[in-house]
UniProtKB/TrEMBL annotation:
This is PKD domain containing protein. Residues 1-20 form the signal peptide. Keywords: Signal.
Length: 422
């Protein structure tokens, strides 16, 4: 058991303190070392469902997902919290923040003036129509009526806030009546659609075009998106596309890869689940599922790609699980953290039903790899596997984790945990 930052205090629901506005979001924070494998004691617990998303606003952690109950760190007090709640980063105390959201919250992003953006499958917030997108005050859980963005259908799966811009990705086809398939940029204060920004994503032959996840580079000049699409405009871009966002619009770059053209198991219109830029923006890492059927395919793997040059790119390295899905990735400099329901790393010759292959190492549910080689690091806290880790959030204090199980680092941690810096 590890007591880090502040020891767990007497538990009570407390109001959110008044804080200044938040800085623009960035790619994952650089860390000088790998985080501890011993989770902090003071984090609260989500008692059911799945945690899909995490955000930090000031000293407040906001947690989104599909759940109904949370408990304090001692599990002596239980609170009704449907799909979203908040707690103190340094003390773990559960906040009074409790907006009424009638569907899952799949994505979160810090907003200005101590607010948070929510994206998901909800249709109403605090009883008012607000489909898929909302901005909520952390002071009193109220909905910003001035932020008037609504998706036409589907959900929002990924959000990034950058100053006056808010990027959103998901299964939608339009926002506020403006057609934008899977990816959009909005005014962060009003929710007005940025008319100049259109990624023009299509998926000829696919059941539904969607963006599963995306990230914006630390300098804000690039956006990498993954999902169920095959083209951007007239250019072939199978499951992954890199855009230049330094100008007014979304300019498709000449960067591309054919690595994800081979299909995985039938039924996967996309097998890419998350993508993240490195803290210096020089490379990305993609986490994938898909049921590995061949060591030559990138199903059930993580792969690094360089992003500073144009043209065709092959992976710098590939980390293979041998048939288990990866859903989440975080990059801190010394480590690339990977989460899913994997059993092994370094397992290119293993298969889902026949156990590990030569050289495989046990990394149940969570692990880290060397950013230069892709080989497993010694960091091995373990977690109960479940479906998998759905959210990582790198903060200066460490690594926050959201999932669907209640064992992390060989301790009870209900669906939320924090691995502090050593």
């Amino acid at each position: 058991m590890r007591r880090r930052l502040l020891a767990a205090a007497a538990v009570a629901a407390v109001a959110v303190p008044a804080l200044a506005g938040v800085p623009p979001a960035a790619a994952d924070t650089y860390h000088p070392t790998v985080v501890s494998a011993d989770p902090a004691d003071h984090t609260p617990h989500v008692l059911d469902g799945t945690v899909w998303s995490l955000a930090v606003v000031g000293d407040t952690v906001v947690v989104g997902g599909a759940f109904t109950k949370v408990a304090d760190s001692t599990r002596r007090l239980t609170f009704a919290r449907k799909n979203v709640f908040a707690f103190g980063l340094h003390d773990g105390l559960i906040r009074t923040f409790a907006p009424e959201v009638d569907g899952a919250v799949y994505s979160l992003a810090a907003g200005p003036d101590h607010s948070v953006y929510m994206g998901g499958a909800f249709k109403t917030v605090n009883g008012a129509a607000q489909r898929g997108l909302a901005r909520i005050s952390l002071h009193d859980s109220s909905r910003y009526v001035s932020f008037n963005a609504r998706v036409n259908w589907g959900d929002v799966r990924s959000l990034v806030s950058r100053g006056e811009r808010l990027y959103a990705g998901g299964t939608f086809q339009a926002v506020n009546g403006v057609r934008r398939v899977g990816l959009i940029r909005l005014n962060a204060f009003t929710g007005t659609v940025d008319q100049a920004f259109d990624a023009r994503l299509t998926g000829p032959g696919l059941k539904r075009t969607r963006v599963e996840h995306f990230d914006v580079s630390p300098d804000g000049r690039k956006l990498i998106a993954v999902g169920a699409f095959l083209k951007s405009g007239t250019a072939d871009r199978t499951q992954i596309a890199l855009f230049d966002t330094s100008g007014a619009g979304a300019a498709l770059t000449g960067w591309y890869t054919d690595a994800f053209k081979p299909t995985c198991m039938k039924g996967f219109d996309t097998y890419l689940r998350q993508v993240k830029f490195s803290p210096d923006g020089s490379y990305i890492v993609v986490a994938a599922t898909g049921r590995a059927s061949s060591a030559q395919k990138l199903c059930d793997s993580a792969a690094r790609f360089e992003t500073r040059t144009s043209g065709l790119h092959n992976p710098t390295w590939v980390q293979r699980t041998g048939g288990d899905s990866l859903y989440a990735v975080a990059i801190t400099g010394p480590a690339v953290y990977l989460g899913g329901h994997q059993r092994w790393f370094d397992n290119p010759y293993g298969t889902d039903g026949n156990g590990p292959g030569p050289g495989a190492v046990s990394r149940p549910g969570i692990g880290a790899v060397n950013p230069n080689t892709g080989k497993a690091l010694e960091w091995n806290p373990t977690r109960s596997r479940g479906v998998g880790v759905r959210a990582f959030l790198v903060i200066p204090d460490g690594l926050l984790v959201g999932s669907d199980t209640d064992q992390l680092g060989r301790e009870y941690h209900g669906r939320v945990g924090l691995f502090p810096l050593r």
